[in-house]
Structure prediction request, 286 residues.
Amino acid sequence: MFKNKYTGEDVIFSCEVFPPKRNDDMYDIFRTLDEITDLKPDFISVTYGAGGSNSKKTATIASYIKNICEVQPLAHMTAAGMTEEKLDELLSELKRKQVDQILALRGDKPRDMSEEEFEARHYKFASDLIDDIKKKGDFKITAACYPEIHPESVNLDDDLKFLKYKVDRGVESLISQMFFDNEKFYDFLDNLKKYDVTCPVHAGIMPITRANQLGTSVSLSGSSVPQKLSNLIAKYADDPAGMRQAGIEYAIWQCEDLLRHNVKGIHLYCMNKSDITKEIYEAISG
Ligand code: FAD
Prediction:
């Protein structure tokens, strides 16, 4: 938490990490977490592999955040590939590890799952998963939201109606999909009011520090890329150091603008980079 230098109000600062693919690399993520802990973030979220791959690592990393770093962890969990039995196991494991906050998601179709298997999933939407988690244990639930609507949503009205339904299942806060155009986020906040969605929303900011980062994950996210950012990427395409700096400055510029608009939560998609997280945190919190 830090004080907003423009409004004097508290700002919740958090970031997202992901489990490494190789078991050998767990040491690296623990070191990264130790470094991020120095910034005293309000919480750190840990992603969950599509379809549940790596779910043990998510729980182990969340436990490290809670019990070693003494920071609040938020364990992601997806409905894709989830059965009731698996959910029972996972919730027991999280409880054993004293992790009691979950980001409940639908998830996307994992690469190794057929379309039929995905369509036949036990929990159809994040809201179904949330209902069962709530029945089975005492967990605080966060959910995802999409300032530029979810790519599968037919229209804005549907997107917001289903979001409202999801939040009413007992969601305490929302984390937004990454966005690069703050105006889209402000419009989204206005729309939430119209649909009576009143829980806190953490603004998802992804620093683009490599020219090729706008590849799969950003294009799948459906987030639009403003001209200002695409110009930077074109300018620094062959200059990795220049791109890193320009990407950090763009993220700082976005965060400063959010603070001026009195946004209460900033969630950095930090890609396991503690140095980038630190640079951004120090610039915006000072
Ligand atoms: P939902 O809320 O279920 O919505 C999915 C779509 O279904 C939307 O279009 C919605 O409008 C529609 N919908 C919802 N309810 C209904 C209904 N009752 N009837 C008809 N339509 C409905 N993926 C991972 O695999 N692992 C992660 O760790 C992960 N972390 C993420 C973190 C954040 C902050 C975000 C924003 C996304 C993350 N994702 C992750 C990606 C996420 O799983 C995908 O975006 C997925 O496509 C949607 O998940 P959701 O929980 O938002 O889905």
